[in-house]
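Long-time lurker, first post. I've been practising inverse folding by hand and with some scripts of my own, and I keep getting stuck on stretches where the structure tokens seem ambiguous. Below is the full token string for one chain I'm working on. Before anyone asks, I'm not after the true native sequence, just a reasonable design that respects the backbone. If someone could post their per-position residues I'd love to compare against what I wrote down in my notebook.
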């Protein structure tokens, strides 16, 4: 009778631990898939130092208009950044949190302008197309001319004297 009770306790415990292990494995697998999907997403908020800050929020923090077509007034952005960054200096009674937000806002706007400029550059490169002859000519002009051996000229046949 004792062996029956012991075996029931062992089997019940094994079943409970088995179910708990299976559930934990499912959760870990789902978490891993979610993390992999987010890390491969280039627009994920946590992939850059300006984590969690949208372009609209960044523009509102610095009180500038969003860059249109990749053309942003970076001088105005830097001017507003410098002013707000200095105003929120913790040594002058400001807030480190606000200072950090101002910094992240500037980084976010700069990143957006940089991405747009890079996309425009790639588009221009694609629009220009690949010009193999022009590149070949440039390559030939850039390397020094090496002396070549004179080619033997074919002897011309002269008509026999008559």
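-- Answer (accepted) --
I ran through it position by position. Result:
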């Amino acid at each position: 009778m004792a062996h029956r009770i012991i075996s029931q306790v062992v089997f019940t415990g094994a079943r409970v631990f088995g179910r708990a292990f299976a559930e934990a494995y499912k959760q870990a697998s789902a978490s891993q898939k979610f993390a992999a999907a987010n890390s491969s997403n280039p627009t994920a908020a946590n992939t850059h130092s300006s984590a969690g800050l949208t372009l609209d929020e960044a523009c509102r923090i610095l009180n500038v208009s969003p860059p249109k077509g990749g053309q942003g007034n970076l001088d105005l952005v830097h001017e507003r950044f410098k002013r707000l960054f200095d105003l929120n200096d913790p040594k002058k009674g400001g807030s480190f949190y606000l200072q950090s937000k101002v910094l992240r806002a500037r980084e976010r706007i700069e990143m957006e302008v940089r991405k747009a400029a890079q996309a425009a550059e790639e588009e221009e490169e694609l629009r220009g197309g690949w010009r193999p002859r022009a590149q070949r000519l440039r390559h030939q002009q850039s390397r020094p001319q090496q002396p070549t051996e004179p080619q033997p000229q074919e002897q011309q046949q002269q008509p026999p004297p008559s």
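A couple of notes from the structure itself: The mean pLDDT is 80. The chain has two domains: 1-40, 48-128. Happy to go over any region you disagree with.
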